[in-house]
């Protein structure tokens, strides 16, 4: 039985996977497109369609994020507009590279390897953060100071005053070359592997351009929204966006993100951060296995790859939902326990 | 992919961006309404 050109199993998979990705990233505050593209690659979608659909999904989630945060944080509109232009140029170059690699027949391999490195890197960062949690609790004040510090490389890049210089809303000034270099590189990565790039765009605006953190978040969101639209347009021009898949993922993700975002008030991020790190490493291993299977010319590892990538996401999202239910249950029990005392007091 | 093959590629791509934009707004608003309606309902059922 097929609905919208997809089997019922795939339809359920996309909506439920979108939901789980929404829960995860509503909770951890990321876009989540970097799980969508590799999943589509594992499901044998061509690299250009997987990347184009990943960017379109990112655009949809950006719209929802902007609607949610429209009154939160400041936006440096001039910097945002310049970033939009350079991000778009980067995305255009990245997409041309993908189509070039596709013509050579190595787009899936290159994208797959890029994701193995990216997901393993993010996983390692989260695992490191989880391992350092105890130390941070012991020396909280010292760590807060250390977190706010701009690294030496960032300070060096911020100190470049190659003209033309652009005045920032915050009062500082940044070289157009620095903005173009930082934005163009992020755009190239976005266009090449189909991620929104918020996890590198925001630090780039903060550490390299020198925008204050509050404005960096809003400006990143603003530039990301328009560059996401441009990425969708670029890949849409060649028919490389599967609207059905994107729509199904968004239906699940929009709901999941609400629940994930609400869960942050009930579940301590530190309790689940280690599982998120493990999930990323498992997802990376899943893609590596898939690439190995393709190289060996066997489909035997395909199921294991999908299970590692999708299964680990389902597991961590389910764990967050379980903790929400557990927390809600405990609150109800507390309310019930407190009720007689209140009545007695009256 | 949008099946409006007769339209030129830039128009199809613009249409695609518009469809995703509208869909995201509808989903955001729709789930917002659902949340407002469902939350008191769930509380009522739980407390009953």
TrEMBL record, chain A:
Keywords: Cell membrane, Membrane, Transmembrane, Transmembrane helix. Pfam families: TauE. GO terms for cellular component: plasma membrane. The keyword S-adenosyl-L-methionine does not apply. It is found in: Cell membrane; Membrane. The keyword Translocase does not apply. It comes from the Archaea. Its main location: membrane. The chain crosses the membrane at residues 7-28, 48-67, 79-99, 105-127, 174-199, 205-229, 241-260, 272-289, 301-322. It is a multi-pass membrane protein. Belongs to the 4-toluene sulfonate uptake permease (TSUP) (TC 2.A.102) family. This is Probable membrane transporter protein.
